[in-house]
Amino acid sequence: GPDMPLSRLRRAIEECCPHLAASVHIRLKLMAEGELKDMEQFFDDLSDLFTGTEPEVHKTSVVGLFLRHMILAYNKLSFSQVYKLYTALQQYFQSDEKKDGIDESDMELTNTEELEGRMEKEELDAPLREEEISCNGPLSQKQAEYFISQQASLLKNDETKALAPASLQKELNNLLKFNPDFAEAHYLSYLNNLRVQDVFSSTHSLLHYFDRLILTGAEGKSNGDEGYGRSLRYAALNLAALHCRFGHYQQAELALQEAIRIAQESNDHVCLQHCLSWLYILEQKIFDSCVLLEHSVNKSLHFGLPYLASLGIQSLVQQRAFAGKAANKLMDALKDSDLLHWKHSLSELVDISIAQKTAIWRLYGRSTMALQQAQTLLSMNSLEAVNVGVQQNNTESFAVVLCHLTELHAEQGYFAAASEILKHLKERFPPHSQHAQLWMLFDQKIQFERAMNDGRYHIADSLVAGITALNSIEGVYRKALVLKAQNQMSEAHKLLQKLLIHCQKIRNTEMVISVLLSIAELYWRSSCHTIALPVLLQALALSRQYSLQYLASETVLNLAFSQLILGIPEQALNILHMAIEPVLAHGAMLDKGCAMFLVAKCQVASAASYTPQKKVEALESAILNLNEAKTYFAKVDCKEQLRDVLYFQARLFHTLGKTQERNKCAMLFQQLHQELPAHGVPLINAFK
Fold first, then answer.
1. What are the residue boundaries of the Anaphase-promoting complex subunit 5 N-terminal domain, all occurrences included (predicted)?
2. Residue 615 Cα distances to 544, 608, 628, angstroms
């Protein structure tokens, strides 16, 4: 490994052999503060260890082999090289002495508690400093290879433990200064530039890596005559992947065509399968290419590429989930791919599969099942061997699952827990890391929902720009929600219509249904109740066609509200019983509250034709439902809805002659009404 500081070396020796640590320090001090002949004497003394009838060290022992290797290396040095070695030893010792001197002067100025705290912090930080090598001079080939493999492993498994992008690039530049043809250093530089989304530098480093690979003949040694061509086709394939990642699809397609052409000339089926996978990724930006994907999976299995085959199955499942295929068939397909993962110990793909299941259950509106899958992944241990202290599974799968978990907690009103998970995400995936955009989007969305629930529309509006930067469709949709809440109906309608056309074009069914529900709400608020019905029926047909059960339930609730407004509350109550169960089982707190509030409204409207005794029972039942709705709204701090519930309860208590309860509700209503003045919209005229 790289040379560690003397203080650390002494500490490491002290842990296993305390008396030896002092001897090492004394010998180094004698050599560093003495003359060149002291170092020569040291190597002469080493040679004497092997002499005699009972030598202190056997030549074939581990220590013996190491010492002989060191003596041979020293004997081969020229005089100038011996002098350089001696000056390097002096610098090594003196730099540590200077550091100790600074620490001692600091100790005199600090009290014991501060010193203990600093020592504890140093112990905690110790593993991080071990990885930070200073390339002041040329490193040996093995030291450089160790540093590169270590940093590459950390970038894959736990990016937070790797050097910061700027520090790592500085070290790599130092390495390349002494050895410009070191291909692996160029590849690590490519990975490092990807971390900070630097398209120019990452392309530059990738091309240099393959250039050096061809120049040094590293590929030719392992692959015979095919080495040169193999480097070229994989260079083109990697370049295509790079362009695809940055959204340069036209350049990616050109690079991919080049890779396919070279792979076909060389009859390289493995490379062609990788090309086919990337071709699917590019083609799906234009049209659904299920046939291409199925062909890729079959060919990958034929050529014994389980990793590629499994990724193909995952993509196929995702595509069919968006196409509205039955959940049981998708889960069966994922079960088959899981068997493939366990058979070949592909732990990364096990994680992807579980994250995929979490996302599918969320898509279908089954939050309980999604929560179960998320917990399964988080409680799993990786199959891959990683160093102690390195965070396992720092992959996109974990980022996705933790983001879903954050949203699930926020929906249920557990904002403190959601904040803790987000804090963990920020530590695990720093802002410059590859998957940071996932938690950034969820963080903004949760803040937006809280601001909307609290009636602070100016804050919600300020968050729209951040959401749009991360996801343009989500941003436009939320801008429309803010305009609707501010009663800017025509502007909101124009925006929603544009978004609807765009989402239909790109086949984003989930967003299409959400937009249709928002448009229906605009029609209610404009007293165009009959126009809202066809829009809602269209949303219901789409949600049932694509098996989006939760959105279907939400659409039915909206239809029930339309029927209530149109004067048929009995019919509204009948269809409410169909839809309310999934909402109460899997819904967000806000949706549960809205559903119970709607049930209470329908009960009161239906009671108009009842006998006096039956009417009293119906109103009391409505009050109980309103209490439940109030509990749900209070959990997510939804003040506007709470105000509406209190108003409704006060009216019901007044009808039943319960003066004390009525006055209590009226007082609470008045407090909220002063805090959130009405915008001139009738309270009964909105479902959410």
1. 1-99
2. 36, 7, 20
- 665-675 CB burial, b ≥16 within 10 A, e <16: bbebbeebeee
Residues constituting the chain: 688
Judge whether residue 183 has pLDDT over 90: no
Determine what percent of the chain is predicted with pLDDT higher than 90: 21
Q: Is the per-residue pLDDT at 517 higher than 50?
A: yes
Compute and round to an integer the Cα radius of gyration of the chain. 34
String of b and e for 79-112 (b: at least 16 CB within 10 Å)? eeebeeebeeebeebeebeeeeeeeeeeeeeeee
Q: Percent of the chain having pLDDT more than 70?
A: 87
The pLDDT score that the predictor gives to residue 491 is 93
Q: How much is the pLDDT for 515?
A: 95
Give the integer Cα–Cα distance in Å for 449 and 562. 25
The pTM score is 0.76
**Selection from 507, 479, 83, 580 nearest residue 324 by Cα:** 507
Burial (0-12, 13-18, 19+ Cβ within 10 Å), 331: middle
Residue 382 is classified by DSSP as P
Query: How many Å apart are CA 671 and CA 425, to the nearest integer?
Result: 38
Residue with the bigger pLDDT between 230 and 31: it is 31
Q: How far apart are CA 340 and CA 312, in angstroms?
A: 12
Does the pLDDT value for residue 100 go beyond 80?
no
Instruction: Choose among 445, 448, 465, 444: nearest CA to 456.
Output: 448
* pLDDT at 407 > cutoff 50: yes
State the Cα–Cα distance between residues 293 and 279, nearest whole angstrom.
9
Nearest to 522 by CA among 510, 535, 504, 511: 535
Q: Considering all CA atoms of the chain, what is the largest pairwise distance in Å, rounded to the nearest integer?
A: 117
- Give pLDDT tens digits for 269-321: 888 888 888 888 887 655 556 777 788 788 888 888 888 888 888 888 888 88
The pLDDT, as a whole number, for residue 118 is 45
List, in sequence order, every beta strand (DSSP E) within 542-688. none
DSSP state of 381: P
Q: Other CB atoms closer than 10 Å to residue 379's CB: what's the count?
A: 7
- The span from the CA of 473 to the CA of 518, in Å, is 15
Return the minimum-mean-pLDDT range out of 227-231, 408-412, 416-420.
227-231
The whole-angstrom separation of Cα 590 and Cα 638 is 8
CA distances from 87 to 5, 28, 93 (A): 16, 13, 10
- Give the C-alpha separation, 374 to 460, whole Å: 29
Amino acid at 172: L
Q: First vs last Cα of the chain: how many Å apart? A: 63
d(CA 230, CA 216): 14
**Which residues, in sequence order, are CB contacts of 547 under 8 Å at separation 6+?**
324, 325, 326, 327, 364
Which residue from 392, 482, 474 is spatially nearest to 438, judged by alpha carbons? 474
